[in-house]
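Reopening this ticket.

The earlier resolution said the output was attached, but the attachment link was broken on my side. Pasting everything inline this time so it's all in one place.
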Amino acid sequence: MRDRSRDEAMAEVYRKDPEYAVEMLNSILEDGEPGELLIALRQMTKAFGGVQAVAEKAELNPTQLYRTLSAEGNPALSSLTAVLKAMGLRLAVHPVKAA
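Inline output:
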């Protein structure tokens, strides 16, 4: 029996529970860890049919999307919003709570 990768396991979780995916992204954005955001977006891309399908829906080049979501990726705001929109999500801004 083949072991699943963490990305595959998380993609399945996100596919089965989209609300959890939203909570996870918001939590990552709250903490401000870009690397974690890219990992979650890669996993969510798998949940939404893979890079090819998401790139097509987001009207992005699949090769560029692979690079954008790589560990060294640095997505432009336009790419990030296009990917999120392809997943039925959007970026939002909220005030930071005072410490």
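Reporter confirms the inline version is readable. The chain is about 65% helix and 0% strand. The chain has a mean pLDDT of 89.
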